Amino acid sequence: MRTSDFDFHLPEELIAQKPVEPRDSSRLMVLNREQKRVAHRVFHDLPGLLKAGDLLVLNNTRVLPARLIGVKQETDAKIEVLLLRREERDIWEVLIKPAKRLKTGHKVLIGEGLLTAEVIEVLPDGNRKVRFSYDGVFEELLDRLGRMPLPPYIREQLEDQERYQTVYAKESGSAAAPTAGLHFTPQLLAQLKERGIETAEILLHVGLGTFRPVKAEEIEEHVMHSEYFRVLPEVAEQINRAKAEGRRVIAVGTTVTRTLESIGDSESRVKPGEGWTDIFIYPSYQFKIVDALITNFHFPKSTLVMLVSAFAGRDFLLHAYETAVREHYRFYSFGDSMLIV
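Structure (tokenized):
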């Protein structure tokens, strides 16, 4: 299939710049795949749209305050360091701007030297490996000096950094939020539990590769980025029990979908474990685990639109996106969402 098959017109004014308050007051488009029907609801209606026994699977990753602003030691030139992936205790793969100023051996002073990042390797894709040196606890310094790595299309700074975290976020490691989960509130989760809807938590650390455009003309030629995941034995057992009993497994977001489909087998069972996944899901893919999906509205021609097209059907999804544009839904990270059943 061609990348252009997943294009659509999106007016710039529909790209959400701020989250709505409260979280669950965002709009929710409901797509029924069998009936090819679209309905318009609000996210706090979710408990009434699901069934007792449904299993919602959440990604409990937490976004790192990964944007660090410093100066080059030799010249005092301003440098931005964006943490991408921890290689070892104090060694990270990072994205540096402007990159051309930083060679192996150069140092960036952050927080007037509270953190020092020394470039130890220039990678083939232009990223750098750096070694941090500091006094104290790295995570505490990161919380103090770092900024939230908001997507490039969001031009305004957040007043409350926690609004780019889910309410159930636990383990830091993501460069971007699993945005389908941003709509949940503690009260909504309690209502779901009262209605007999189960929840389970997996971990997938979201990488910046989620924002990389697909440059290949044929989607099969695109090389997918890899991301770290972990699924505990008790969670795998909970998912397998739901599948065996004919109950729906509902993925909250594309990150959960990629994780579950990576560890699922042909008998619709999952295995616990951890590792890296570079699964690329696009139309013709046969889903093994996920029965329903909650997801935000994504970029034209993105791997995320391709994944959701594989689940909903490309023509039906693009029809839903045209409807969303016409009805002025809000797009991307702080935008509205859809429930696909």
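The CA atoms of residues 74 and 208 lie 29 Å apart. The chain has a mean pLDDT of 94.
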